[in-house]
Amino acid sequence: MILEKPLVISKATVRDQEALHEWVHRHYDDIYRFLKHLTRQQEAAEDLAQQTFINAYQALSGFREESSMRTWLHRIAFREYIAWRRKRRLSLPLELLGGRADKKFGGVESQIDLLAALHQLPSAYREAFLLFEVQQLSVEEVATVTNTKVGTVKSQLHHARKQLQKLLGEAYLETNHESE
Amino acid sequence: MNLNEHIEQMRMEQPRTEAKGELILKLQQKGIEKKPMKLITKISIPTAVTAIAIVGGTLMFRPTVLASPSSVVNAIKEAMTYRIKSFNIEGNKKTLVSETSVINGKKSTKTFDKNGNEINNPVQIHFGGIEGIEGRFGLTIDGTGTLKHLPKEEINKILVRHGKELKDVEGGVLVVTGESGQVKFGGNVKGGDVKQGFKLDVKGGKSVEVKMTKDANGKMTKKYIVDGKEVKELPKGIADKIKVIENQKFGGTTAKGEKLQGMSEHSVEFFHNTKGVKMGATGAQIDISDGKAGTSTKQSIIGTKGADGKMNTFVSGQTSADYLVQLLKDADKWTIERNVVWNGQNLDKFTLKGPFSPIELYVDPGTSLPKVLRFKSPMASDGVIEDVYEYGIQP
User: CA nearest A1 in B: which residue?
Assistant: First the structure.
């Protein structure tokens, strides 16, 4: 499903204020969700999401529509996250690791388990997985956001799945998405 | 739960309700001036679940900036599809009076009698009132076009306009005065002198007075006085806005200084048809039908001057939402109380003193959409009308 709608962003008029509302309401949840899964911290995700929109707002004149607004915002959010990660030297808090799924029940027990497993993967695998599986970007869009080649993204997704399979068990095989 | 379901769950994760509002405020406060630019946004939404989540999210988490009269007006306009259930409350009795469905902006209204049966020829309620007259609010018009529930003193101040659509509520001011407190023309002049006339204030600040006088031969002549100066003909730019109708019958006296505001056209041709006034009794009636038996006007605009000098304009066939939008345009008149609990919901309470005073409007602070509108009933002085707004209805 593709929605296309012209959006006029400016601060000059009430009408533009409405466009600003629409812009934020249309994209914020998506960007926040992406950052929340990357950082696993609500506060950090909110701060980064806010900074993403501020940066995007300031850079709107430079937006050349080469990608969709959604992909563009993901790209800015991803840059914000990388900068944040560098600063924080992100490490996985032990309390968020949670218990591993018992294989005899045939699946993961909670979302935390999946997130915890994701955060045991190399960051590039995790980011590709989140962008592709959760954010539902195409492989090409993932490549744009992470500034890598399409082939690399496919490879990252492949490795991410294999490693998740090891960590979480056969339940992982139930995913439907195929990128290769 | 398998992994797909976990991923789906991750996709549904929502931020705090206030987060978007905070961000919008921050962006607004940044004061970053941008030239208007057109952006084509494309959203790829592969699953219906995500689409529903986004649409639902948009509806649920609309502006978290503070609701204001203007944001409520915008929200009503944007809503396009909603239902208003209008209840009449008297004591402990709550009766469904009407149900107005607006589907993609198209309105239809069902009206019900006391037993809940739909009425084919319904009473129309005019959403307006007489400023400062406690307990004597509003007008109703039944199927034959009869105004009710007004004392004669108020009926005598009423102007009626037929068949005109209120296209643009902003605009000129029409002032009608009778020099002796009466407006009589032509055949309606009941003897005596001819010191009568009327005055128009048209858009642009021009004041136009039309005087009818008898000449030496006893023939009626018409004089125009524009901004205090007598002229032979109405100046260009005014003449096309004014149509002087003579020989109109007026059923009663017409008060001085009545103003009709917000008319899209400047014309006095509406100023008629107050015939049939039954004088002397509270609840007197004015027949506003177009004079043909069995017919009634589809739309009338009726106005009286309010205590503040402004005109209260009544438009038949309005939904209360239409009327509400008009009232909300006087943004400064509303007082707003935040975080008021109404039926277990935290809402913003807007209050307006005026027609049907006080009008209470409960607004969802997140979306600026009206939830409940309450005002004094035009049907009964101790009654209350409660309009309950429902959104997300199916056509």
Answer: B45
CB contacts of A10 in chain B (<8 Å) are 34-37
Closest Cα in chain A to B39: A7
Cα separation, A162 vs B346, whole angstroms: 49
Nearest 5°: phi and psi at B373? -120, 125
Query: ipTM more than 0.85?
Result: no
Q: Which two tokens stand for residue A51?
A: 């900074």
CA distances to B105, B114, B273, B277, B366 from B292, rounded to whole Å, are 32, 30, 12, 17, 50
B337-379 pLDDT per residue, tens: 988 888 888 899 999 875 556 788 999 988 889 999 887 765 5
Please give the Cα distance from A66 to A58 (Å, whole number).
18
- Nearest by Cα to B361 from B380, B326, B335, B390: B335
User: Are A146 and B45 within 8 A, CB to CB?
Assistant: no
Q: Note whether A75 and A64 are within 8 A (CB).
A: no
Listing DSSP states for A107-163 in one string gives S-S-HHHHHHHHTTS-HHHHHHHIIIIIS---HHHHHHHHT--HHHHHHHHHHHHHH
Per residue in B137-165, pLDDT tens?
A: 344 443 333 444 444 444 444 444 433 33
For residue B311, the surrounding DSSP H or E stretch is: strand B311-315
With beta carbons under 8 A apart, name residues in chain B contacting A2: 42-45
Rounded CA gap, A133 and A129, in Å?
6
Determine whether the interchain pair B9/A61 forms a contact, defined as Cβ–Cβ distance below 8 Å.
no
The verdict on A69 touching B (C-beta cutoff 8 Å) is yes
Contact state of B44 with A58 under an 8 Å Cβ cutoff: no
Closest CA to A133 of B115, B5, B314, B339: B5
What is the distance in angstroms between the CA of the first residue and the CA of the last residue of chain A?
22
Residues of B whose CB is below 8 A from A70: 41-44
Taking an 8 Å cut-off on Cβ atoms, the answer to whether B15 and A63 are in contact is no
Q: The sheet that has B82-90: what strands, in order across it?
A: B106-111, B93-103, B82-90, B384-391, B370-376, B359-363, B345-352, B335-342
